[in-house]
Write a structure and sequence with these properties.
heterotrimer, A mainly alpha (about 280), B alpha/beta (about 375), C mainly alpha (about 260), A: about 280 residues, mainly alpha, globular, C: about 260 residues, about 0% strand
């Protein structure tokens, strides 16, 4: 009956999952650190190469830039949807939620494929515009930053909407009503009373989208044409083309550190616990 | 394992696997043939014991897929028919690392490996491969540039200038200078994601004559100049990472011009509509695949050399060209190539005259540094 | 319902964004029915040739089956392990268990390429490259966070005093869990299990690194298809998957409506 022996039993439940996570996931990640310091020779050579390399710097800047653009796009578009679903929609609400969940559950690969079909030189958008006489020669919508950002916003949007919706659900309409009752216009009530209350949700969504965008591989690899080289693709490139595990690992470590820094900075604005540990579906 | 940098162009070989998949879909490879290729890929574990048990048997290793099937049919089965000695194809990919591991451990199960000069150079240095016995293998039956002490050319492929006349309004670039001329030849171009086979074209685009390309690239300035050419062109470039993506870019009409493998051009000539595809070996880069023989191979040196000599048969090499698009390494084979395939043969006399030979030594020295600058030029 | 400018702005905006979310995905439908042999909208009429191509190709079918059964095994393993984990942590609710929970969700935060590199090197050592087990193990790890979050969310509604009461009445830990906790966790387990299946079914980056030739999953086949032979068969696969997702989404929303 002692609490202590109960603890052991509870840890017994916890340990299997925890053990395999540590052994087969965390340990290999630490192995990457090790590789970055030991291949091809022991030392920090990979890191010096990395910091000296123009290409790496460019790739990091590009990655952050795209992540920022994607986050801003997702926040603006996502906020509108989350707001309407939480406040204006009545009968349409389930439908609207379904329209957010559906793309969320369709795989990234398929969503990226859809964008390839749409944005290619002889893709559907170009064909339609040319057919309608709007343009003469095809627009370059793909294999460039525009196409990548557009597709990434599409892919990441649900990740922005869902936390914001969860947050808005908890906001009582009483404050806004009170403000309106005191004579404020709809817009002012929104701006001064409602919007600030949604900040935690916005921050959660922003964090999630930004972190996911930093490390993203599939969409930029498929739509970037090899010139929009985000860090994940750069790493893959070093490993698969040149078997350069040393540099690839060093870059991975750098990416992990960058991600960790972003999360730690965000911790000042976001309640990480509720954002990450207790996210519902 | 990786204390050396292997600059062999393995992708060109692995590329043949994808060509196989494509041919299967097209119905040019039977299901049985495809399944036997799959079997060939899974053969090694069983093969290990088998090869060591039977002395009189040759194990030839390449990169799998259609190429394995072609190798089996064209070279191996014919050899068996002539000599009665069974020859098996293993498609698991004879990388330098694997060969080295085998020889060092003493458990060599491979007799003959389809490799590249980059790997061969390293393996020679490490003492892992045998010298080619040119009393059995005929030096005259190989392109002079593909005769080495410890390796000999087995087939060739090229980097060619491909274009889509339809997208260019009939105005097709004639040389690499034209390719860099975006004003007169507008449209997107495709180049490889890696410098391999690419810097030569950038050098020629500056007006450097073919014979002097590697001299020019031998200096830091020369390399920088070539890289800068890519920087200039980059807004018009989509890179190809695999043979099939280079093929796709043309099929999807995403590019009008490209520097691609001749094996892919070989497929595109049939896939693209009439008048929408041309490929030229002018200013092309010819690269050989080579046979290497691991030391202490199970079947013994003499037998393997005889097999290599068998593979030099010009008729067999022409068959190889027809089936999979890689060119013969034997200069005598050019005369036997059917007329409609002549211009697609990388080693025909006409095409040989307009190409330079891929310089593996240059790549062994310079590739790593050049790659870095190349990516930088493309993405910055 | 007042129709102020404010409302109109937001309402139209929202519908436009939702259209933006939905329509690109739907583009695969007409393309899958194209009568041409290359990707594009149908020219003269609709054709089922690309669906036929899918059903007649043993490689597409075996890849699909592989993804399904691997996904099933992953869902099972992840649900069992993840539920036990979440229940244990829920009981403990101390610092150590919070640390454990943070460890369990790392797969969500680590970039896919980085974790795949980790898998690759370790899997080579373990001899798990290009094996089904190797894929199942990797996918289970990636699915665990979702199961644990899901179950934990479900348990948030469970009053702690109930299992406490059961214990003080003499029930063993196991009996308590079975009788009181598991039923409460069940919705979370179901959601988590479904998530685990989807995570495994759609996973691509890890598979690209840890499989070579023997193991082929549906996402891998799609990826290779896009790189290699970008033909409308991919669109028909995509359409079928989208339709499936549509049905599942509709069912979920429907159940949500009738329950609410």
């Amino acid at each position: 009956m002692s609490r202590l022996s109960d603890s052991y039993r509870y840890w017994f439940l916890v340990l299997p999952a925890l053990t395999i996570m540590i052994v087969f996931y965390i340990w290999p990640l630490l192995g990457i650190w090790q590789i970055s310091l030991t291949e091809p020779k022991a030392g920090i050579e990979n890191y010096t190469r990395m910091f000296d390399s123009n290409a790496v710097t460019t790739s990091f800047i590009l990655t952050f830039r795209i992540a920022i653009k994607t986050t801003i796009g997702c926040l603006i578009l996502g906020y509108i949807v989350a707001y309407v679903i939480s406040n204006f929609a009545r009968r349409a609400k389930p439908l609207m939620i379904a329209l957010v969940l559906l793309p969320f559950w369709v795989s990234v690969l398929i969503r990226s494929f859809s964008w390839i079909v749409l944005l290619g030189r002889s893709g559907i958008v170009n064909d339609t515009l040319i057919g309608a006489g709007v343009i003469d020669s095809p627009l370059r919508l793909m294999h460039n930053e525009f196409g990548v950002v557009l597709a990434m916003i599409h892919v990441m949007l649900p990740f922005a909407v869902l936390p914001m919706m969860a947050n808005m659900r908890g906001i009582s309409g009483a404050y806004v009503d009170a403000a309106r009752g005191l004579g404020a216009s709809e817009f002012t009530a929104f701006r001064k009373v409602y919007f600030p209350q949604t900040m935690p949700g916005v921050m959660s969504g922003a964090l999630l989208v930004f972190v996911l965008s930093l490390g993203f591989y599939i969409t930029p690899a498929l739509l970037g044409g090899g010139r929009v080289l985000m860090i994940s693709e750069y790493i893959t490139y070093q490993i698969q083309e040149f078997l350069n595990w040393g540099l690839g690992s060093a870059l991975s470590v750098a990416l992990l550190v960058a991600t960790a820094i972003v999360i730690l900075i965000a911790a000042r604005f976001v309640n990480l616990r509720s954002a990450l540990l207790e996210r519902g579906s | 394992m990786n204390d050396f940098n292997d600059t062999t162009d393995h992708e060109a070989k692995a590329d043949l696997i994808e060509i196989a998949a494509y041919k299967y879909k097209e119905g040019r490879l039977t299901r049985r043939g495809f399944l036997s290729v799959m079997a060939a890929l899974g053969v090694l574990p069983a093969l290990g014991s088998k090869a060591m048990a039977q002395a009189k048997e040759i194990v030839v290793v390449n990169w799998g897929g259609r190429a394995s099937e072609v190798l089996q049919e064209v070279l191996c089965d014919t050899y068996t028919a002539e000599t009665g000695i069974p020859v098996i194809v293993d498609g698991s990919g004879p990388s330098g690392g694997k060969i080295r591991a085998m020889v060092e451990s003493g458990a060599v199960v491979w007799d003959l490996c389809d490799s590249g000069m980059g790997t061969a150079l390293i393996l020679t240095e490490q003492g892992m491969i045998q010298p080619i016995d040119y009393s059995i293998v005929d030096k005259d039956k190989v392109l002079p540039a593909a005769v080495y002490e410890n390796a000999v050319g087995n087939y060739v492929y090229s980097y060619v200038l491909a274009a889509n006349p339809k997208l260019l309004g009939g105005n097709v670039p004639q040389n690499w200078e034209d390719v860099w001329n975006v004003k007169d030849f507008p449209g997107m171009r495709t180049f490889r994601k890696s410098v391999r086979g690419m810097l030569e074209s950038a050098t020629m685009a500056q007006g450097v004559p073919m014979a002097e390309v590697y001299d020019a690239l031998g200096t830091d300035d020369g390399i920088k100049a070539a890289i800068d050419k890519f920087r200039q062109l980059r807004e018009n470039i989509i890179v190809w990472g695999s043979g099939s993506s280079s093929q796709n870019l043309f099929l999807q009409e995403e590019v009008a011009i490209g520097n691609i493998w001749s094996t892919r051009a070989h497929l595109l000539k049939d896939q693209m509509d009439e008048g929408t595809f041309t490929a030229s070996f002018d200013g092309g880069v010819l690269a050989p695949g080579v046979w290497v023989v691991p030391k202490n191979n199970p079947a013994g040196s003499e037998e393997v050399m005889k097999f290599i000599a068998h593979g030099q048969n010009p008729e067999l090499q022409v068959k190889w060209l027809e089936m999979i698009g890689s060119g013969p390494a034997n200069p005598q084979a050019a005369a036997l190539v059917p007329p409609e395939l002549q211009k697609w043969n990388p080693s025909s006399p006409e095409n040989l005259a307009t190409q330079i030979f891929y310089n593996d030594e240059w790549y062994a020295k310079n590739q790593i540094a050049a790659e870095e600058m190349y990516i930088d030029a493309l993405i910055n | 319902m007042k129709t102020s400018g404010f409302r109109i702005f937001f309402m139209t905006g929202a519908w436009m964004v939702l259209a933006f979310l939905l329509l690109p995905i739907l583009v695969v439908v007409p393309v899958s029915l194209t009568d041409t042999s290359y990707i594009g909208l149908p020219k003269e009429g609709l054709s089922l040739q690309h669906y036929a191509a899918y059903f007649q190709d043993p490689r597409w079918l075996s890849a699909t089956w592989a993804s399904i059964w691997i996904g099933g095994v992953v869902a099972l393993c992840a649900t069992v392990l993840g539920t036990a984990f979440a229940i244990g942590c829920w009981f403990l609710s101390d610092r150590a268990s919070t640390v454990a929970r943070w460890i369990l969700i790392t797969p969500i935060l680590v970039p896919p390429v980085v974790q795949s590199l980790g898998f690759y090197r370790f899997w080579v050592t373990l001899g798990l490259i290009d094996t089904n087990f190797g894929v199942i193990l990797a996918h289970t790890l990636l699915a665990l966070p979702y199961v644990s979050i899901s179950v934990f969310a479900a348990l948030a509604n469970l009053d702690r005093r109930i299992p406490q009461a059961a214990r003080s009445l003499g029930a063993s830990v196991w009996q308590t869990v079975r009788a009181v906790v598991l039923p409460a966790a069940m919705p979370g387990m179901v959601t988590g299990g479904i998530f685990a299946f989807i995570v495994s079914f759609d996973e691509i980056v890890g598979v690209l690194f840890i499989t070579v030739r023997n193991v082929s999953t549906l996402p891998k086949k799609i990826w290779e298809g896009i790189q290699e032979d970008i033909d409308p068969t991919i669109a028909s696969v995509a359409t079928m998957l989208v339709m499936l997702t549509l049905v599942v989404t509709a069912i979920t929303i429907w159940r949500g409506r009738t329950n609410a």
